[in-house]
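Write out structure tokens for Adenosine deaminase-like protein.
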Amino acid sequence: MLQFLRGMPKIELHAHLNGSLNIGSIRELAAKVYGVQTKEFSALCERFIKFEKGAKLDECFEKFGLMHELTATKEGLESATELVIRDFAKDNVIYVELRTTPKSNENMSRRSYLDTVLGVIRKTSDLYNIKVKLLPSINRAEPVDVAEETVALAVELSAIEPDIIVGIDFSGNPNQGKFKDFMPVLNKARNHGLKLAMHCAEVDNPLEIREMLRFGMSRCGHGTYLSASGFEYMKEENIPIECCLTSNVKSGTVANIGVHHLKQLMEADAPKVLCTDDSGVFDTTLTDEFFLATESFGLTRSQCIALTMEAVEHAFATREEKLMLKMQIYSYTRRQNK
């Protein structure tokens, strides 16, 4: 099964750029851009992926400090973006939607941050034979005026790069910020044709979950604390839940893999997709996530293919792109069945 999954063309719909560099690529980035390859740095890398038993979600967000430092320059950001795209392609991911919060520091403005990421995507998509989209992220822990700048940039740049910038991600520490404060700017993005991928029900906050469901979204990130009625709502509205198995277990939002809500979603026949979230932080790949699902919930080859086809349907891709992706997946299944 593992060999089949490694070769299977895959669709990644929930991947944060700064969290998707694996340890090898972090070392490669540090050596290339900063010349850092000390024992201390190696130890720091090991702590980057180490999760103690009983880890809490807040601890996961603290780990991003390392990556923010490594991508604080244009050269660092360029290299990191290319390495992430390369690593997904190595895992036979043929389509990925990357999410990233535009940063502003002494080296870059938020505009130049997005311009840099866009430049790498344009350069590397054909090089690694992978279709890459970009969802600029709103970090709910930051002020609303930062979100407004991010959306304004996304709207402007999506008119220039409509095949790359296709939506907005709403994420960040769910224990910080209030969703209702961001509703106007999210509505602005939606009114300009951008899809909304929103982290929803990542923690147990019934009031906010109701607010988010009423507001609406194109895809739901995590959905860990959705009730049975919430699953039913997602099914009625055809809103997929982006399930990130390893992420949820390691961050402590799910007690163990056996009780992950993917099982409930499958039983309810509700829309769902398998994703990595932060493949570097959680030391996983999309192949690993599929294999974990087969080991934990008994998914068959045909169910893995069906989940991949379902991901195609929920991708923020054009009709023509979806057709091409389906043809690649179908071609693989035909070769395997010979």
